[in-house]
UniProtKB/TrEMBL annotation:
Transmembrane intervals: none
Protein name per Swiss-Prot or TrEMBL: Monocopper oxidase-like protein SKU5
UniProt keyword terms in alphabetical order: Cell membrane, Copper, Glycoprotein, GPI-anchor, Lipoprotein, Membrane, Metal-binding, Signal
Residue stretches making up the Plastocyanin-like domain: 30-143, 156-310, 400-534
One Pfam family matching this protein: Cu-oxidase
The organism of origin for this protein: Panicum virgatum (Blackwell switchgrass)
Single annotated GO MF: copper ion binding
């Protein structure tokens, strides 16, 4: 159960450094639970027995303490999509910065949501586990003293949408390991539930669906996150307009949409007025986009919006998706219409636009070309790459290796430009050497035939441009120099590019990844290492936390922990420290690791 304590002074005193900001405590038991969202029973990942997990409801600058017990039978890490972890990549929860939590162990995350507001989500980051759940929403409320660019909504609703496979994550992993494609997903879930029976022949009876209960004449803030594996989803609420107000921590210029494409890993919040008559309930729809529609015959995600005075169930056809089959610019134009509200304050009272990104000179530019998975070596194994390099998670987390002077874990020679097309991907552990306080341009070029989205941990970046075709130096002339929105996940259409700018003011080693789980698992990620060589103390980067886990070449520093399972899984034999490193190796295998070429 969620414990949220408004804290004792003694505890605050112990945590002297951050003493003035409140703490929120959470105790999570992450275990398998049985569910049948599309009518087929499977093991999904729950938190405290619930799938999806609880909403983390916190406020700017709060300190968040989450004690995670890994009650699964495999290693686990939770990552916090869009939370910036300022100076503190030790809490980021990806294999480049953290050793995975062994099965049966607990580990406590502690981080501050410094200078952030907005809508984010968390999920398990290793080994395709997100395809089995383990995710939930994060709401970072504004402090009361900060003005918000819209009236206080009457309710706040988190909506997690995502494609779903009836195969579990371990079977999906095996498919990728054998060089197979995951193929089409089996449907779309809304808040972990299958579709309302909008069509008797498509949707079997007995599927549990999500209902959002509302009152007429009110305004609700709905926060929509695509937590799925690889499918872009068009989100819409029948009969209602959706006023877009925020995305991933930035207030947008407010605009009405009848539907919006939400790509994998993206978050948006909308205001929805319950201003329609209550003659019936209304459909809430998340339908697949940018898929081959003659092949996509799977169920659409459908939930129900129910007014308290509703006179009957929703019926009839679902509201139409955009009719843009022959217009590939429609979705991209919609993406371009998402702009930053320059005059609104966000976590601080000063206007978002007071950071004039266009007046800063770019100091480093990387053109990152993503390619469809291709075979490496002679085997059946396929790898996905950025600039021809397919990343393998390190056995020793990168920043931990830095702190302990372990050499040879990675190289700092990631190429600024992609190699000529056609070469087979190479497996590597090459990292981008980011210059502290530099201003970096990242251009993502999507050579794959499917939609991609890319995310950067530790930062929000400015989305300055996207277009079909090949990015060239001239493309810079088309950049949005005024109100490109700051966010952390950007979609990249097939055969197109997207450019972002990022101010490298957060020291640490930060993951840049494909949000599509299969591409990520197959190596489409890199890290940006940002180091302040002048910091001799702990000013620009926090010290390694006292409870840090050690693995790989540093496993000798790891103290034993008696495993304790609370639910589902039966207790495993106690593990010795050397068993820990075996577990870590297992995690790396799970993460799709292959041997590095000598
Ligand atoms: C996944 O399904 C396979 C059967 O297809 C089963 O052997 C395996 O134990 C399942 N894994 C989990 C974690 O439920
Ligand atoms: C979330 O926290 C805010 C501010 O503390 C509070 O007003 C709101 O009721 C909370 N929402 C939920 C769903 O608990
Ligand atoms: C594990 O949880 C216990 C209490 O439930 C706590 O005392 C301990 O510090 C936790 N260990 C870690 C490494 O977080
Ligand atoms: C249900 O779906 C099937 C298959 O797509 C379609 O042929 C049929 O017309 C739909 N029925 C209704 C009532 O919409
Ligand atoms: C959005 O639509 C509502 C009606 O549904 C209208 O009242 C409002 O003015 C519109 N807002 C904008 C910014 O277009
Ligand atoms: C209620 O709204 C529906 C859908 O917009 C419309 O078809 C219907 O005529 C309306 N009923 C009344 C009583 O206004
Ligand atoms: C969609 O799939 C069908 C059947 O495999 C194929 O014939 C068609 O070319 C595909 N369309 C596109 C746009 O890829
Ligand atoms: C931008 O934010 C301001 C609040 O600072 C608000 O008054 C204004 O309506 C917003 N503009 C748009 C276009 O959303
Ligand atoms: C940016 O570069 C231009 C030309 O190299 C230079 O004149 C200008 O002073 C630089 N601006 C800043 C803010 O450094
Ligand atoms: C990384 O960049 C810094 C400047 O930020 C430079 O001093 C250092 O030599 C670079 N390291 C490598 C290995 O290129
Ligand atoms: C940084 O923090 C660590 C752990 O708290 C401490 O051991 C170390 O002395 C600090 N370094 C400096 C220079 O303050």
């Amino acid at each position: 159960m969620r414990r949220l304590l408004a804290l004792a002074a003694s505890l605050l005193a112990l945590r002297a450094a951050l003493a003035t900001d409140p703490y929120a405590f959470f105790d999570w038991d992450v275990s398998y639970v049985t569910a049948a969202p599309l009518g087929i029973k499977q093991q999904v990942i729950g938190i405290n027995g619930k799938f999806p997990g609880p909403v983390v409801n916190i406020t700017t600058n709060w300190n968040v303490v989450v004690n995670v017990l890994n009650d699964l039978d495999e290693p686990l890490l939770i990552t916090w999509n869009g939370i910036q972890h300022r100076k503190n990549c030790w809490q980021d929860g990806v294999l480049g910065t953290n050793c995975p939590i062994p099965s049966g162990w607990n580990w406590t995350y502690e981080f501050q949501v410094k200078d952030q507001i907005g809508s984010f989500f968390y999920f398990p980051s290793t080994g395709l586990q997100r395809a089995a759940g383990g995710y939930g929403g994060i709401v970072v409320n504004n402090r009361d003293v900060i003005a918000v660019p819209f009236g206080r909504p009457d309710g706040d609703i988190t909506i997690l949408i995502g494609d779903w496979y009836n195969k579990n994550h371990t079977d999906l992993r095996k498919m990728l390991d054998k060089g197979k494609d995951l193929g089409m997903t089996d449907g779309v879930l809304i808040n972990g539930k299958g579709p309302y029976r909008y069509n008797d022949s498509l949707v079997p009876a007995g599927i549990e669906y999500e209902t959002f209960n509302v009152h007429p004449g009110r305004t609700y803030r709905i926060r929509v996150h695509n937590v799925g594996t690889s499918t872009s989803l068009n989100f819409r609420v029948q009969g209602h307009t959706m006023l877009l107000v925020e995305t991933e921590g930035s207030y947008t210029t407010q605009q009405n949409y009848t539907s919006l494409d939400v790509h994998v890993g993206q978050s948006y919040s909308f205001l929805v007025a319950t201003d329609q008559n209550a003659s019936s309930d209304y459909y809430v729809v998340a339908s697949a986009r940018q898929v081959n529609e003659s092949l996509w015959r799977r169920v659409t995600g459908v939930a129900v919006l129910r007014y308290s005075n509703s006179r009957g169930p929703a019926a009839g056809p679902l509201p139409d998706p955009p009719q843009d089959r022959d217009d590939r610019s429609f979705s991209m134009n919609q993406a371009r219409s998402v702009r930053w509200n320059l005059s609104a304050g966000a976590a601080r009272p000063n206007p978002q636009g007071s950071f004039r990104y266009s007046s800063i000179n770019v100091t480093q530019a990387y053109l990152l070309r993503g390619e469809a998975p291709a075979r490496v070596g002679g085997g059946r194994r396929r790898r996905a790459a950025l600039n021809g390099l397919s990343f393998v998670p390190p056995e020793t987390p990168l920043r931990l290796a830095d702190a302990y002077g372990v050499e040879g874990v990675y190289t700092l020679d990631f190429p600024e430009r992609p190699p000529p097309r056609g070469a087979a991907p190479r497996v590597a552990r090459s990292v981008i050497n980011g210059t502290y306080r530099g201003f970096m341009e990242l251009i993502f070029q999507n050579d794959d035939a499917k939609m991609q989205s890319y995310h950067m941990d530790g930062y929000a970046f400015f989305v300055v441009g996207m277009d079909y075709g090949e990015w060239t130096e001239d493309s810079r002339g088309t950049y949005n120099k005024g109100d490109g929105v700051a966010r952390s996940t950007i979609q990249v259409y097939p055969g197109a590019w997207a450019a972002v700018l990022v101010s490298l003011d957060n020291v640490g080693v930060w993951n840049v990844r494909s949000q599509n789980l299969d591409s990520w698992y197959l190596g489409q990620e890199v890290y940006v290492r940002v180091v302040n060589s002048e910091d001799a103390g702990n000013k620009t980067e926090m010290a390694i936390p006292g409870n840090a886990l050690f693995c790989g070449q540093l496993h000798k520093y790891q103290k034993e922990q008696t495993p304790h399972h609370r639910m589902g899984v039966s207790a495993a034999a106690p593990r010795s420290p050397s068993a820990v490193s075996r577990l870590v190796s297992a995690a790396l295998l799970l993460a799709g690791s292959v041997m590095l070429a000598p």
